[in-house]
Design goal:
The chain is α/β, with parallel strands linked by helices. It has 11 helices and 13 strands.
Length: 342
């Protein structure tokens, strides 16, 4: 029971990186300098959300030979900093220019109006309405529902946990789906729930130590399967779960396959997938082919935009769990189950 996602490669951290391609003239269509990618909090190397975006960026660069530049966020930055970053990419001729994360919404709205001939993309926000903007969003609640089913079927003590990075509507969708999925298996299951911070600026998506502490508390309370939607902070959740020999469920990318998490992979049951890399690739492809996407582009279970990764052989051996997750997926696709977003 898988969803096709663009595989991640090992990446290092840095303020920005640039590569150049050779096909501007060869394609006969594309006249930009390449793809401009601006990362969310946590930056490249988070083994989750940002790295998924980088995987799509890298695939498009190689396939279309168009080059690109990706830029890291700075600690404590303002909306003005994001405006400057996107403006810098647009002025340099990158096309498309993509903001990774809802925090780029004000910047994308402002900068896209100044560069109408460049296509902009924003991931996880659908409030920017412009002819040259693609709002790339996902039904995270559907993937999280599958995570909840897997967690409830796997738990030996009917006690599981959810750890969200920041207490915001986007992450509420992850929790809502997870809780609904778990309760579809066992209505009386006990579910711990915790958010690491109130705002992104406080480090909820970028603090593995906060994730580790939250996981420790939930495990001490009795939970034996933990699901995180916390970006880089999720590495702390996974490491703590592995150290206590309980299950962790990853998010956004197939975290079982991440090199930085290799020592913990035996305790990564699966991951709720969000094909961010595919969205980045599809937008770059549309611009390259001269037919840029715009408006809301929504990835769901039916389209393969979200799913549940089953890379861990231990998970595959749990035939009753796999069957329950497969059934839940089909029920959602068939419209028999509507997943809550709150």
């Amino acid at each position: 029971m898988t969803v096709a996602v663009i595989a991640l490669t090992a990446v290092g951290c840095g303020e920005s990186s640039t590569s150049s391609g050779t096909s501007d003239e060869e394609s006969g269509k594309y006249t930009g300098k390449g793809i401009g990618l601006a990362y969310d909090i946590g930056g490249k190397g988070d083994q989750s959300f940002n790295d998924a975006a980088y995987a799509g960026f890298e695939k498009a660069e190689k396939e279309f030979s168009i080059g690109g530049r990706d830029i890291e966020p700075q600690d404590g930055e303002s909306d003005a900093d994001k405006v400057q970053r996107l403006t810098q990419l647009a002025q340099a001729g990158y096309n498309p220019v993509i903001g990774v994360g809802f925090i780029y919404a004000p910047a994308v709205k402002e900068v896209s109006a100044k560069f109408p001939d460049i296509t902009f993309g924003i991931i996880d926000d659908e409030q920017v309405s412009a002819k040259n903007v693609a709002d790339m969003v996902f039904t995270e609640e559907q993937a999280s529902y599958l995570a909840g089913v897997a967690a409830a079927k796997t738990s030996k003590v009917n006690h599981i946990g959810f750890i969200g990075g920041v207490d915001i509507p986007l992450i509420h969708k992850f929790e809502a789906g997870f809780v609904q999925g778990a309760k579809s298996i066992n209505p009386s299951i006990k579910i711990e729930s915790q958010y690491l911070t109130e705002t992104p600026q406080e480090g909820g998506f970028a603090s593995p130590d906060k994730g580790k502490d939250a996981a420790s508390g939930q495990i001490e309370a009795g939970a034996d399967v933990l699901y995180h939607a916390a970006g880089l902070s999720g590495q702390g959740v996974i490491s703590e779960a592995a150290s206590k020999k309980v299950w962790a469920i990853g998010v956004d990318s197939d975290q079982y396959g991440q090199k930085a998490l290799a020592e913990y992979k035996d305790y990564i049951l699966g991951s709720a997938l969000k094909n961010v890399g595919g969205a980045v690739y599809d937008l770059a492809k549309s611009v390259y082919e001269g037919k840029p996407l715009s408006g809301v582009q929504r990835g769901d279970l039916k389209s393969g935009g979200v799913g549940f990764a089953d890379s861990n052989p231990k998970y595959k051996a749990m035939t009753d769990v796999v069957a329950a997750v497969d059934k839940a997926k089909q029920d959602i696709i068939d419209g028999k189950v509507t997943v809550n977003t709150k």
